[in-house]
Design brief:
The structure holds two protein chains of two kinds.
Chain A: H1 2-8, E1 36-41, H2 46-59, H3 75-85, E2 89-95, E3 100-106, E4 112-121, H4 123-129, E5 145-149, H5 156-166, E6 184-191, E7 196-208, H6 213-221, H7 233-238, H8 243-246, E8 254-256, E9 270-277, E10 281-290, E11 298-301, H9 310-340
Parallel strand pairs in A: 1-2, 5-6
Antiparallel strand pairs in A: 2-3, 3-4, 4-10, 6-7, 7-9, 7-10, 8-9, 10-11
Chain B: H1 2-23, H2 27-33, H3 35-56, H4 62-91, H5 99-134, H6 136-147, H7 163-191, H8 205-233, H9 240-274, H10 290-293, H11 298-301, H12 309-318
Pfam families (chain A): Brix
GO cellular component, one term (chain A): preribosome, large subunit precursor
Biased composition (Basic and acidic residues) (chain A): 304-321
Amino acid sequence: MPRFRNKKRVPFVKPVVKKQQQQNVDHITGDRIPRSFVFSRGKLPGSLKQLQADLRKLMLPYTALKLKEKKRNNLKDFLNVAGPMGVTHFLMLSKTATAPYLRVAKTPQGPTLTFKIHEYSLAIDVARSQLRPRCPKDLFANSPLIVLSGFGKEERHLSLITTVFQNIFPAIDINTVKLSSCQRIVLLNYNKDTKLIDFRHFSIRLQPVGVSRRIRKFVQNHQVPDLRDLQDVSDFVTKAGYGSESEADDEAAHVSLPSDLGRVNRSTNKSAVKLQELGPRMSLQLIKIEEGLCSGGVMFSEYENSKGSKTQDTEEEHIGSDEDMEEEHSESEEDEENLNN
Amino acid sequence: MAEETQIQESGNVPMKRRLGQKKGGKGKKKMKVYKGSGEKVKVNKKMQKIFRKRARDYNSDDDEEGEDDDDEGDELVPVIRNKKNQRRESEEVDDEKSSDDDDGEDREDKGEEFEVSEDEDGEIQPGITKFTKGSSAFRKAFMKITKKKVADSVLGPVLSAHKKLIAEKLAEEEVERKVKGEVKKEKHIVGEKGHVQLPANFLDTHEKFLIGIATKGVVKLFNAVNKAQSAKKGLNPERAKDAKVIKQKKRAAFFSELGKKPYKSEASSKAEGEGPSWAPLRDNFMLTNSKLKDWDKMHDTTGPEDSGMPTYSSSDDED
């Protein structure tokens, strides 16, 4: 009997943990892949929680879609996780009595951009307003393109916004990119008059030019078409489909592809770019820019110039009170890092 | 309550026993005794409807009426009629019918009720003789209550003496509920601040303008990709001739990169010499991303070749 026991007794060997190399680097271009966390500071009402979920979906695939937060999680916790996970950006949603706020921060050292969300619509609101909401299954498999317009180069805070948002998604290498992976686009449009940034999210669809809707659908779906109300088979080809012709086809949206894309889009033909909104949509106003991660010197403040007026001051205080708590954490964090360096 | 439950039981008893009969021979004797019960069940079907209706708006008085009818049916009729009318009003079934019709119907119903209750009593009596004897005092008490005139109040017939208290309580509850609802509503409104439920201005001019901008960006990228990739397309790297061409192109690209480099470094050194007043210009600012280092110089120095997306977006700025 003791023999059996001896067999069981295996000396404890510390398992050799192979450190799995995080794929922080794109294997084709060699660029660093930015990753992001989207989370909330403080308790959010239901619609804002939904907005958070939508933002996470928008940031796919390099984001934590199912990031679980607890009430007691502070910024330091996220920061500690962010290092080993290779997370480079934080998107933080918070809410005060006046309005919801979105903060976009680069980890671990900042800067932090604070936006006030003037208006927002969820993805589901957008989908509801559409006749045929579109969601192919590989829509969120690749990260979106980003288009920034109207920011200009003169004002430094605006160009800082552009750099931050350009680097929030992986850069695209023209020589190697596959156009089939370009499925979505995020648009940020700065309106100089209102100082609001329109945030939109579209899906990109390519359609062959000059092919009627019926033929296109027939080629795409491989389904037997409904010929009941037609006199002859030729009618199916000659009769123009309705939908696509009514839409104004402008030449500006036509592109020629380097290679075939799917069944219908041939490299020999021209294709039209069609965008359909996915949501969420937001109209943002830049409130302030901080040097550190939710801390440090204020590089830009919307209310800097008009400190005399009380209403705006109080509004800023609201945000300030929200961040004061976090400042403590991140300050201590910074100290630690300084020691390490 | 005690009476009521008793009645229900008594109603059930014959059914149970009949079930038992099928099993054993003993039941045959009893079957004779309860032969009438089968017919009674048929009558009960009608009654069941009425009882069910009553159960919906349950009143503890309902069943006692049936019991008491034997003795003083004449007196009770008006009372019952009142209640019936009240029920009608609450259910709003026969609002359009005239009051005369209602009365007529009520009487018919009453007649049926009496018959049935008599039948029930007649049949059941062997089962509950003990109870009826003992409950004479109880019955008297109920008689007293039922004889009482019921005040036509909003609350309906309330036996309790503290009618005012109940009214107050109900009013309080109502107020509380209202306050709670308002608080909830306010909270919801605060939470929904800024949320535009359905974009009413969907695809208006502004949205179309935005879509146009985005489309322009996509077209630019696709065209550039097309330009870059279609040049390579016809060439097969395994064939020596094509390989040469590819090599040449790569070389050209490399040298063009090299040609830019000194200029770029100059620019960055300039920035260092100036001394950073603006934090992002400092050396150690955002060291993790080399691209961010010269974020404000990038537009001037870099061509469209070396970085994909950023340049596209910046080129959109010019438009």
